[in-house]
Design goal:
Distance between the termini: 46 Å
Structural class: alpha+beta
Order of helices and strands: EEEEHHHHEE
Number of strands: 6
Strand order of the largest sheet: 2-1-4-3
Number of helices: 4
Shape: elongated
């Protein structure tokens, strides 16, 4: 059985063995018997860490499970997006000339068929839609 941390309002932290199905439930304080909530302990080195480093650690942890792959195409697309954002920062527009708007405009147009059903053409005609 795992050991969980609980905190009594009068007597502070204490540790108790509890089954995993009872981990969410409060535990009685060993000194006063009062029901105490479970707490999750954070290592002090994380609390004292500089915000920039904490942000970098979080980014590293996220990329550990879902890394971003840099390709020539992704770099070119990022550069194109950056230039477009800089050009349109002052006008506040979100649609004209945007590569994303051009792509989404194509996929948003519905085509009505003779039987009354709709189809939504996309840039990936080989994909099966639902």
């Amino acid at each position: 059985m795992p050991v969980y941390d609980y905190k009594c309002q009068e007597h502070g932290l204490f540790h108790e063995l509890a089954s995993m199905d009872r981990a969410h439930m409060p535990c009685p304080c060993p000194q006063c018997g009062k029901q105490s909530a479970r707490v999750v302990m954070i290592p002090p080195e994380i609390l004292a860490m500089a915000p920039e480093r904490r942000k970098a650690e979080a980014a590293n942890e996220a990329s550990r499970h879902a890394p971003r792959h840099s390709t020539v195409d992704s770099r070119a697309e990022a550069q194109e997006r950056k230039i477009w954002t800089q050009q349109h920062a002052s006008c506040g527009c979100k649609s004209h000339g945007s590569p994303e708007a051009d792509r989404s405009a194509l996929s948003q147009k519905a085509v009505l068929l003779a039987d009354g059903s709709k189809i939504f053409p996309s840039q990936r005609p080989w994909m099966i839609s639902h």
